[in-house]
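Dear support,

We are seeing what looks like truncated structure output for some complexes. This example has four components. We would appreciate it if you could run it in full and send us the complete token output so we can diff it against ours.
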Amino acid sequence: MTLYFLDFFLLTVGLYALIAKRHIVKKILGVAIMEYAVNFFLILIGFKKAGIAPILTKDMDIATFIQTAVDPLPQALVLTSIVIGLGTLALMVSIAIRLYERYGTFDMHEINRLKG
Amino acid sequence: METVIILHILLVFMIIGSIITVEIKNMLSAVIAMGAVGFVLSVAFLFLGAPDIAITQIIVEILSLIILIRATINVDNVAIEKKEEIIFSNRTTLIFIGVILVFAWYAFHSLPPFGDPSMRVSQFYLTHGLREVGATNFVTSVILDFRAYDTFGEAMVLFTSISGAFAILRRWKKEQHKDFLRIDREH
Amino acid sequence: MKMDKHTGMTLIVKMITRVTVGFMLVFGGYIVLFGHITPGGGFPGGVMIALAYILITLAYGREFVEHKVSGVTASIVDDLGALLFWTMGIIGLYVGGRYFFNFLGKGEPFNLFSAGTIIINNIAITLKVGMSLYAIFLALAILQRVVTEEEPKEDEK
Amino acid sequence: MDILLPFFVAIPVFSAIFMLIVGKWEKRIFPRVWSIITTASLVVLLIIIYNKGTIVHEVGGWKPPYGIVLIKDNLSMLMLIIVNVVAFLTIIYSFSYITRYEDYLRFFSLFMLMLAGMNGVVLSGDLFNLFVFLEIASIASYALVGYGVGAEELEASFKYLILGVLASTLILFGIGMVYSVTGSVNMADIARFLINHPGNRAVLMATGLFLLGFGLKAGLVPFHAWLPDAHPSAPAPISAMLSGVLIKVLGIYALIRVSYHIIGITPLVSQIFIVIGCLSMVVGALMGFGQDDIKRLFAFSSISQMGYVMVGIGLGTPLGIIGALFHLLNHAGFKSLLFLSSGAIEGETGTRKLSLLGGLREKMPITSTSSVVGALSISGVPPFNGFWSKLIILLAALKAGNIPVAAILVFTAFLTLSYYLRFQKNAIFGEVRKKVEGAREAPIPMVAPLVLFAVFCLFAGIFNNSIITNIIMPAQEILLDQQAYIMSILGSM
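Here is the complete output from our reference environment:
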């Protein structure tokens, strides 16, 4: 239970960086940290006590494997979510670079002031 | 039992790393600190019995580090931090986060305890996976057969974000092709 | 392989990349093809292959890789990979009446062709993920612009 | 018949990819014509499956709780009609609007992917699948908002992107909590589990996270920061799609589906809906008052109209939900009309400022008459459709005995009427100003959709009971009947 709470604390650290920080790259880093926290939470809920990876090897028999294997569904969700995070990161960095070209600064407040 | 202790240590390290990422002045070291948090996360995935996810996390971590360093290496990454933060927005966000954390503390009590997931649906994947799909890596059989439509949607997400990034990065004809790096040297 | 000295990084980096790129491509290929037997799959394998190309581009400079895999061919292969994955869904709909129906034979577990359409889906994802990330790396890191129309080949550097 | 459901996602995706491949050789005419063919075929597909009742398609051939299921019930039928018809008319509009940008290819390809994402969200019967397609539609709309690559377009799309990714992360955390408690990701399976195991604090927190995430995507008041900035800088067809369709499908529809069909509506949640609805109505209307830029004015009025819908949903009575869903349909009609006409006006006169516009009636007759029809119907003037849906919501509030809400409804109606009258007085009537001298009527592909939307606003107003009985009423019945939803997918309680 404390693992879930600490992981949610990690999410709020990312949330703080996202909202309170003015530097655009800091906001992007905040988003990345939030993605880590959510992916970690999804894998945590799928873990089974003394569980093994859900990959069958030749020397395992199927019955014990089914009892001890960890939950494969959250891992499928996390694989998708990691690559979604990469996609959004690529889009964010390209917008940040073009913003820097246009305004000459990464500071969100400065940009709001210049935008008028 | 010791995996729980190890996971606690790794998680505390990740929290410290992310606080460093948020608070440090130099942008490049912030990106490196975030990279460290990502690598510790992929080690934690190994302890949680998810080798697929650990490999993907390390590889995607390297690529996002390359992209992020690209965005921060040649820009004025220290100048921003000189100005002081606006106290008001930090304080309200901290209060808002504190309220959510208190509410979350009670909510996490009624989640099933760590270590015994209610595998109501995924037990079917483990029992029928080998016979009906034939793949011995059950995560891949879930990704590409039981929920292939999800992975199709996800490939389209990557396709959209790359094509969107191309749309944003395209040059307008009337704009001369000034090289991004050269702008800074002129400053 | 024209080895002009001034583009790209120092000699040491070039030597090391010449050794490691081979391992990365082989390991990436292994992860993709055996994705349904051992850990791995389309995504990590594809990104690994993209990283191999990115390593060459970083070490040897853009011109060296330009005639091998230019930005335009990378995005075409990316579209073809997405199209291949799309047709797998439609063939499943046509053959089995259900979208993404696994219509190929299952084979027996531990050898290569054991999971029907999973292998083809894996290859489609690899093409798509690998080439699109390589193309976005080129656009973001090296060219600062997207190779859309064929401008005159003036040298950026 | 259920073979046709996946084509709602497959056709736009194929056209987006094929467009990019062919785009290497032909960039000007092909993308525009190809998008019109795609959206036309989607509308034809819509007509085919229109009155076929509930269709369920199990993807991959796996039984529902184990595989992903696509479901078309009457509620998603209503949303499909809104999405595909507005997209078809917007594509016709952007046939000639797009000429001001120099790269047509990426615009139409991203538009098709946004369409595929929205169709995927509406059809999906699986919570994580809804998240993935929500992600596709959102990322396509982030890039499209910043398509102009100008200074403030990029700033607006970055702010929209940051808040959108925040919303998606919270939604994914909520999905993780719901999965941990119920052990399944299929919507009907979760609903069945939660009926047998009610009152779980983790599910309550997950509802809060969903409310935060989907509320942010819907641009409701506490988290509306991105909407007024995203609209003025987005191209006109995109802001028409954004406010006419996207915030409805990704925000309101997802909120309705999650709260009514999955977690089961509780008095607390419907009370929160009503409070958020009233807040959005009042704040949207008040901030819309002083706006000089017509697109910002329309953006704030979108927030307040979404507040109407949330109040209708929050009341929970059959009449309230009928009013809300009918207002959803009407709002898609007249808001897209207003945004498209603002694009035409900006195209011809070069400005969106009310202080510089005037006397458009002589120079652009058709555009001004259709935008007058739009302005009248959004402010609820009798013959048009806005009047009927606002009236139904007002009656539902009165019947539910909720007098303060009814008072706020009437107050907002007057506010909306006043600032739309100001819009008409400044922009349409009055003497012709300097800026408007050179304006002449917008080209045919831009004017035809405006006329069609205006005709819809009129006919939906006149024949409102026929629209209500065969589109809105069935959607309302399925919405209030969670058991029927579960039975249609899982076949057993």
